[in-house]
Design a protein that fits this description.
alpha+beta; six-stranded mixed sheet; 15 strands; 33% strand
């Protein structure tokens, strides 16, 4: 048996039972698979919960009540040792929760139509039990699919994102260890924790329309990303295809709309096979100078909680699924998008 098989089985059994159970039984299922002292971290408004009962009541029960006949549609599934966790094994899953939106959710009015909620879930498994969970969901994306445009027009394009192009992201069997190490080294290099190397590829990119700063940014990113990379960003930013369009549609608005950038580090970073990912709590701190996601500028530093999931193709990262707790980012600046939506569209 591979080194991650036991942990993966615990998580897969948990996923299966949680999908089949009623909303009322969520707490019992969560208690069955989690340890005493279980810790749940969720995006706003779920936040940190310190028991299975509380996590079920705050996150799972409302979701399963609203999304009738809910399915977990996985695109990526892998296990790995946490780079920062003293041999902790974490299991990562990303995809969509899909169901019939038959009851109001977080103040969002029901549509009685199919709807999807993007998710990235990290579970730490120790001694056969899940001890910690971090759950990112893209609530603004759920709102947009339900006909609610809570965030101003985005620079990319948000839609129901596909999984990996090669349909190879579900690592139910353990991948060769050397492949995971290669992926982790590349992600570490992206994070500035491994020695750089010179990009010897011919540069075919047409820099017409890009200023000198954008050109240098693209050339730097080519050390890590494929030229035809796809960045599947959260609702409010959207997806971008190719490195130049990513630079134009996300990196430039991000850099120009946010100042005093501070990287706070990651809590978990794992890789297996050609896939890997990380999250922080919070990863970044920055100060909005105006324009980013439609907000005015301020002097108040705010935190960003972020998940990145990558597919490595050869020696470059080819696809990147990103989750940002945008509701939390807005909330720190005095704007509760959920409450605003409820008060206007579902009073």
């Amino acid at each position: 048996m591979g080194q991650f098989q036991a942990a993966k089985k615990v998580v897969l059994d948990y996923f299966s039972e949680m999908e089949r159970c009623s909303a009322e039984a969520c707490a019992d299922v969560l208690k069955k698979y989690t340890s005493d002292g279980y810790l749940f971290r969720g995006v706003y408004p779920f936040e940190v919960q310190h028991s299975a009962e509380d996590a079920a009541n705050v996150f799972w029960r409302p979701l399963k009540t609203s999304l009738n006949m809910m399915q977990r549609r996985m695109d990526v599934f892998l296990g790995g040792f946490n780079r920062f966790g003293n041999q902790e094994i974490w299991v990562l899953s990303t995809g969509n929760f899909m169901g019939l939106f038959d009851a109001d959710y977080l103040g969002i009015r029901r549509t009685r139509k199919l709807n999807c909620l993007r998710y990235a879930e990290f579970n730490c498994v120790e001694n056969g039990k899940i001890t910690k969970t971090t759950m990112f969901v893209d609530i603004p994306g759920f709102m947009q699919m339900a006909g609610v445009q809570a965030i101003p027009p985005e620079t990319g394009k948000f839609f129901v994102y596909p999984g990996p192009r090669m349909h190879n992201g579900l690592l139910f069997e353990d991948a060769p260890e050397e492949e995971g190490l290669a992926t982790l080294r590349l992600i570490n290099r992206l994070c500035g924790e491994e020695p750089e190397y010179v990009d010897s590829r011919t540069d075919p990119i047409d820099y017409t329309g890009f200023d000198e700063g954008q050109k240098k940014y693209i050339q730097k990113c080519r050390r890590y990303f494929a030229d035809d990379m796809i960045w599947f960003g959260p609702c409010g930013i959207g997806a971008s295809y190719t490195l130049p369009r990513y630079t134009m549609q996300h990196a430039t608005p991000f850099d120009r709309g946010l100042a005093d950038y501070r990287f706070n580090g990651h809590l978990v970073r794992i890789a297996e096979g050609e896939f890997g990912g990380f999250f922080g709590w919070a990863n970044l701190t920055n100060t909005p100078t105006g324009g980013y996601l439609g907000m005015t500028g301020s002097n108040q530093p705010v935190d960003m909680r972020v998940v990145d999931v990558y597919w490595r193709r050869g020696d470059r990262l080819a696809e990147n699924w990103v989750y940002i707790d945008h509701l939390y980012w807005y909330k720190q600046q005095g704007l509760d998008l959920l409450e605003r939506t409820r008060s206007i569209l579902n009073p």
